[in-house]
Specification:
Length: 343
């Protein structure tokens, strides 16, 4: 992912791994607890813990580099957020970092990745099999906290399973070997793993052998209609560049994909209606850029199938369907939120 975060109007998130809060209460708290927080720059997970009590706004952060006060936003900091908290640049179209800052786009290659970053959190992959929980008929589902555990800095959930072994011990008795199977349970987890190492081997619910995770990702043009889901042998994650636009409904926004489709001799660009509150809460950097009037492209990932609508022979829409039936996905539903991710 060695792209400049603001180059050509296309943005890249998940670059800044720590940031300094600007709320006076947060600064006082951190200085009073230096045994636990030796520096003022904190991870997004700590920021989420301090949110509402010491940190009052998701935009109240600056770059952790000395003498660089570039504004930083923490995505998904609210307790109700569906994704993991992450730091991103508040300004997506204009660089705000000083020239000597490692987060300045000209110095991108020199950025030292923090131990809590996604690339480091994949070092747990020493043993066991990594299983994708993406379902061919349901997509991604809300996490079940009663059956999985998930650490703050780890992108995976782990399930401990006991497997009987036929190995004889000295007393000729059998014993149980505990095998830990790691599960990638969310779309965000899959995207981060794919960005970290596209060749990493993963098991799917449909495959009994490992495949590179990159095989799960396809350009949006390869997506299928809801009625064609039963023709697929494997589950896929589709991606495309997109941008936001307003609708006649003040509570929703339109995601328009820059992916031309040929439908009945017409060129159609698919679109998706999504809750405005969801975009503002989960992707405040993108929302702020949108309301400022600057059109910005970003990469969108989804597992939802297409839904084709014939209005007239010369007017056809391609939207996105629920997994439950050939109907528009609810813009306020968890089904949409867990099957849509903006990187």
């Amino acid at each position: 992912m060695k792209e400049k975060f603001w180059k050509e109007g296309k943005i890249l998130a998940h670059l800044i791994t720590t940031a300094i809060p600007t709320d006076p209460a947060a600064i006082t708290f951190l200085k009073s607890n230096q045994g636990k927080y030796p520096t003022l720059d904190i991870t997004p997970f700590v920021a989420k813990d301090l949110y509402d009590t010491y940190i009052l706004n998701k935009r109240n952060f600056i770059c952790p580099t000395d003498r660089c006060n570039a504004p930083v936003t923490c995505r998904s900091i609210d307790p109700s957020s569906k994704n993991k908290p992450t730091f991103v640049n508040q300004s997506l179209s204009t660089n705000k970092h000083v020239s000597t800052c490692p987060y300045h786009p000209d110095n991108y290659d020199s950025v030292v990745i923090h131990k809590a970053s996604s690339s480091e959190s994949f070092k747990y992959l020493k043993s066991g099999e990594i299983i994708s929980d993406l379902s061919l008929i349901r997509g991604f589902q809300p996490l079940d906290s009663s059956t999985t555990t998930k650490t703050a800095n780890s992108p995976v959930s782990t399930l401990d399973t006991a497997k009987k072994s036929n190995k004889a011990t000295s007393s000729k008795t059998t014993k149980k070997e505990k095998i830990v199977r790691n599960h990638l349970k969310t779309l965000e987890d899959h995207v981060e793993m794919y960005n970290h190492n596209p060749d990493f081997g993963i098991l799917t619910t449909q495959s009994k052998r490992q495949i590179p995770i990159k095989y799960m990702f396809k350009f949006l043009k390869r997506n299928v209609l809801f009625q064609e889901l039963n023709t697929l042998q494997y589950s896929y994650i589709y991606y495309s560049q997109a941008f936001l636009s307003e609708t006649s409904n003040p509570y929703v926004l339109r995601l328009s994909f820059k992916c031309p489709l040929s439908v009945d001799d017409l060129t159609i660009y698919p679109s998706l209606i999504v809750s405005k509150d969801h975009i503002e809460n989960e992707y405040p950097d993108i929302y702020d850029q949108f309301v400022s009037g600057v059109e910005t492209e970003f990469k969108v990932f989804t597992t939802l199938p297409f839904l084709k609508k014939h209005i007239s022979p010369s007017k056809i829409y391609v939207n996105f369907s629920s997994f439950l039936g050939p109907t528009d996905i609810d813009p306020f539903s968890d089904e949409l939120f867990y099957n849509l991710y903006i990187n």
